[in-house]
Amino acid sequence: MPMHLYEDESLAQEVYQEENDVQFARKVEQELHDEELARQLARAEERALAAEERARGPPPTRPWTMKRVCSYVVPLVIVVLGVVALLYAMRSDKTQTIPNISFGGSFFEDEDPWQGLKPGDVVRWNNGGAGGLELQVVDALESQWEDIFHAVVEDWDSGTPKVLKLATQKAGPDPDCEPIDNKSKVCNSDYGDTQWRGINQVLIQNGYIISTTSKMNEYYLKKSSEAQKRYTMCHEIGHSFGLPHSDEDFFNADLGNCMDYTSNPAANISPDESNFKFLADLYGTVPARRTRRGLVQAQQAPPVASSRPSSSSTSIPDAIRQKLKDVVPRLENRAEGNAHEDGWRLLHSSSQGESHAMSLGNGWSVEMHKLSPFEE
């Protein structure tokens, strides 16, 4: 190749390379310029936003509207109720061991319409204003119950203050436990898996007790201890006088009387002074006899709002007896509950017992008090 041609080609390549270098330098310079411009724009935008926030000031405080309050409170209430329901269900199961939870008192007390009642709130026998209550208790029990029956009646008859004057009458065993006019009757039988070990029936006319019956269920009590049998009978006979429960918290300390719901019947087989004080407010005390020191005055009985003279007795009409035969077995045999389906009104229900009532018409009504089974 001629020399001059070689030199021309080399010169052309140098010129071409220089042009490429210039273009690349301009491109790099443009990119650096664009990046700097973007950074400046970003900083300017940040300064503008900050200035706008400063101009607006702090965000306003949200008002506590009812809707906002409910949004906090309702979920909390639901959680608390769920915990309470769970613990209560565990406590109702006697196989569970539940710690003693207390918030200024007994947290899991069953509501009991009997507990806390005053003498003016309960039904009673009409003693016509005489001091104390004289009542005949009919023994319609089988022979294996005789010793327990007489021990229980003696406990009620010998209490202080002296309110009750009880006499016993022996009758043949009567599993049906037909009510007797103006008397209290106690019976026993194997009544089956009824979910009650003892039941008390109180027949009422115009607010006054006319007759009571108490049944001991051998299905649960046959193999029970003597203390359990004695507690059950003492409890049901106590209802026969109009007594309420002393206490119905199954898990607290025993009060030492048979009107207290308890898991330790041996410590609660008899009535105590508190039961007799309640009875004294109901009926007054039995007139005292003259002693060597003089006449001891008896407490006067509370006034009785009844036009019926004290010496009178009331017969249960045949129509009422028939209604009892119709409605009482439905309640006694309902092991699954739902007694309201048979017309009974539920007064109280807990794991330890139930109370029901029904109007029989013409001023007559009946109350039933169940004592639930207890595994010893």
Q: Can you put this structure into words, describing what you see?
A:
- By secondary structure, this protein is an alpha/beta fold.
- The chain has a domain of 253 residues: 3-Layer(aba) Sandwich (Collagenase (Catalytic Domain)), CATH 3.40.390.
- The protein is built from seven helices and eleven strands.
- Strands 1, 2, 3, 4, 5, 6, 9, 10 and 11 form a nine-stranded mixed sheet that branches. Strands 7-8 form a two-stranded antiparallel sheet.
Helix/strand/pairing category:
alpha/beta
What is the third-level CATH name, the topology of the domain at 119-371? Collagenase (Catalytic Domain)
The major pleated sheet works out as:
9 strands, mixed
- Rg, alpha carbons: 43 Å
Distance between the termini: 126 Å
> What is the helix tally?
7
Beta-strand fraction estimate:
15-25%
- How many strand elements? 11
- The CATH H-level homologous superfamily of the domain at 119-371: Collagenase (Catalytic Domain)
- Roughly what is the average pLDDT, rounded to an integer? 80
Q: Please give the share of residues in helix.
A: 25-40%
CATH class of the domain at 119-371: Alpha Beta
Mass-distribution shape? rod-shaped
Indicate the low-confidence ranges by residue numbers: 91-114, 290-301, 303-311
SSE order, one letter for each helix or strand: HHEEHEEEEHHHEEHEEE
Second rung of CATH, namely the architecture of the domain at 119-371: 3-Layer(aba) Sandwich
